[in-house]
Amino acid sequence: MRTVLFAGLAMAAGLGAAAGAAAQDDDWEFQQDPAQNITIAAARYDAGQMIVVQCRGGALTAVLTGLPQATGELTLTATRADGRSDVQTWTSAGAPGSYRSAVPARDIRFMRGGGLYRVHTAEGETPAFQGAFDLPPQSANLDRVLTACGWGLTDDRDALPRAEVSLLNPEAGPIRPTRRGATSRSPRRQVDLPPPPSTPAPSEGQKSCIVRELRLTECRTDHPSPPTPPEGQAGYLERLEGRPVFALGEASPEGGVYYVPNGPVAALDYLVVRRR
Q1: Average pLDDT score over residue span 202-209
Q2: CA 74 – CA 60 distance, rounded (Å)
Q3: Residue 3, helix vs strand vs coil
Q4: 3-class SS of residue 220
Q5: φ, ψ of residue 7 in degrees (nearest 5)
């Protein structure tokens, strides 16, 4: 029987195989610790790679491990068993050969349904990588992680190609900081801070827009974003609407979806494998 133990904070908390572990041959391995607010699903492979999906404190994370080490990000063309393909961006997750999805909910939903999940870098990219992962045919445990973080199991924009665009003109020169004279600090004043919210806000958010004629349109909040109040979110979306963008790749971004970059994301509690 195979068991999964969690490292990092989960290991420090004493989370072990007896704390709600579930390992099924036809589904993702699953474990949770309600006290730490952690839910994890994972698929492990004989060559040492792992696909780890985690909801921790309301933040969703997807990580591939056992890949070639690189300093930057990996752009992978992914194909499912049903023939559907997508271009995914994975950034370094800190540990050598581990990469974190830039748009985890979409990439996790892409893995639902099981079958062969093929990924490869574009020709000429360094490091070059191609791999095939036989995903578990059942996705109930994968869905449990998505729903634990409040994400839907489907999204209409998953079917749209990702638009390779930038909000900044890549052909423009670097922005030089403006030198300012010294200023004196104003005296401190007593400020009445608002009371903290009665319930904690989610710890992540996602916004997306559709690119039409190299402008952002139909911008929306895909997932609640904390510390900004609803009116602030609406104002931010209004500022995005109609903003010009610049194509980065050779493919036309027309009709594609642009995911607005988020700030810092939650760290992953990596898995350590033990057999018994």
Answers
A1: 76
A2: 19
A3: strand
A4: strand
A5: -100, -170
**The model's pTM:** 0.77
- The separation between CA 191 and the C-alpha centre of its own chain, rounded to angstroms, equals 37
Cis bond upstream, residue 194 (ω within 30): no
Residue in the structure block whose two tokens are 């992953």: 268
Rounded CA separation 40/139 (Å): 13
Cβ(96)–Cβ(121) below 8 Å: no
The H-assigned helical ranges of the chain are 9-12, 104-110, 140-148, 230-240
Q: What's the rounded Cα separation, in Å, for the pair 104 and 127?
A: 22
Cross-strand pairs, 87: 77
Query: How deeply is 75 buried, as exposed, middle or buried, from its count of CB atoms within 10 A (0-12, 13-18, 19+)?
Result: middle
pLDDT digit string, tens, across residues 88-121: 999 988 888 999 999 999 999 999 999 999 999 9
The first and second tokens of residue 237, run together, are 């979306």
| Residues 72-81 pLDDT 10s | 788 999 999 9
Pairing mode, strands 115-121 and 73-79: antiparallel
DSSP 65-92: ESPPP-SSEEEEEEE-TTS-EEEEEEEE
Instruction: Count the neighbouring beta carbons within 10 Å of the beta carbon of residue 82.
Output: 8
Beta-carbon-side half-sphere exposure of residue 185 (alpha carbons within 13 Å): 3
Phi and psi torsions of 142, nearest 5°: -65, -40
Chain-centroid distance, C-alpha 255: 22
Contacts of 50 (CB under 8 A, 6+ apart): 42, 43, 44, 63, 64, 65, 66, 271, 273
CA dist., res. 167 & res. 216, Å (int): 10
**What pLDDT score does 68 carry?**
85
The whole-angstrom separation of Cα 38 and Cα 148 is 9
